[in-house]
Design goal:
about 300 residues, alpha+beta, Rossmann fold, Tumour Suppressor Smad4, 6-stranded antiparallel β-sheet, disordered C terminus
Length: about 300
């Protein structure tokens, strides 16, 4: 019996629609049942169902969206890159079939990526619940305004008090997964983690106190972030750079490891490090300066 397949197609990407047609035709020749979900701009009404495999046709943002949609179902995702070199969308359009065949034969397995479940409590009501593959960012809704945030490890049961990790006064706070360590968190000075680690990064954006540094914790530790009163600006929660929620004083943001990881299919599990070398202009020789890295010191 053929597999059930869904294609998430970002038509904003050049040739994505053509590639989807070719993939659909090839898979249907093999007896697969194929559902095509095409979108441009902000997606609406994503498909619901259980599939054996999903294809993401676009860039890294399309993979993030696909992963959130499929988080409850555990379907593996084959990310076909339709843009520039990405950290997540790694499979080239010309290589999708060989990668799919290797996965189908069991020659390669899916990379397990930690996802985070984010919920917002206001009073006694949960007003928002979402999942992220990259990060959740709490920041000022206005321009150039500091926010105050209290961060704790959420003990949550038996009257055991939460463990405070401190109060942050900063432009914002990034809660990133290992997959998201190469996104906004890295730009804000955070560490790069192997994407298959089970960890979470707490990374303040431009903190007022220089002692507030990025912090790496096991992803199994649930967190609670409280928005104190007397903020000078509105506060905004952004999930994977795509979904948003306006926060109020007193709101609590709960962060915990999602029940299921994202499953990403790559032909080469080491391609992540190749992408790092290419994106960050690493020379590949730790003992020498490459001479073509714009981030290197001019007189090094």
């Amino acid at each position: 019996m053929g597999k059930k397949v869904v294609l998430f197609v970002n038509t904003h990407k050049k040739n994505a629609q053509d590639a989807a047609g070719q993939i659909q035709m090839e898979l249907e020749k093999r007896g697969c049942s194929v559902t095509v979900y095409s979108f441009e701009g902000k997606p609406e009404n994503p498909p619901q169902g259980v599939w054996d495999i999903a294809f993401s046709l676009g860039g890294d943002g399309t993979v993030l969206y696909t992963a959130r949609c499929l988080a409850p179902f555990g379907a593996p995702i084959l990310p076909v890159n339709m843009g520039s070199l990405g950290f997540i969308a790694e499979v080239d359009r010309d290589d999708w079939l060989s990668t799919y065949e290797k996965w189908e034969k069991g020659e390669i397995s899916a990379s397990k990526r930690c996802m985070l479940e984010i919920s917002v409590e206001r009073g006694s009501e949960i007003i928002m619940k979402n999942i992220c593959l990259n990060d959740a960012v709490i920041s000022a809704a206005g321009i150039a305004k500091l926010v105050n945030l209290d961060v704790c490890i959420n003990r949550g049961q038996g009257g055991v008090p939460d463990t405070s990790l401190g109060s942050y006064r900063c432009d914002g706070l990034i809660i990133a997964t290992p997959t998201g360590s190469t996104a906004y968190s890295m730009a804000a000075g955070g560490p790069i983690l192997d994407p298959e680690m089970s960890a979470v990064i707490i990374n303040p954006i431009c903190p007022f106190a220089l002692s507030n540094r990025p912090f790496v914790l096991p992803s199994q530790l649930p967190l609670v972030i409280t928005v104190p009163a007397q903020q000078r600006t509105g506060v905004l929660l952004t999930i994977d750079g795509q979904d948003t929620c306006n926060l109020q004083s007193g709101d609590k943001i709960y962060v915990q490891q999602a029940e299921r990881p994202a499953l990403l299919i790559f032909a080469d599990r080491h391609a992540y490090y190749s992408a790092l070398r290419s994106k960050l202009f690493w020379s590949g020789d730790s003992g020498n300066i490459s001479g073509n890295n714009p981030l290197e010191r001019e007189n090094a």
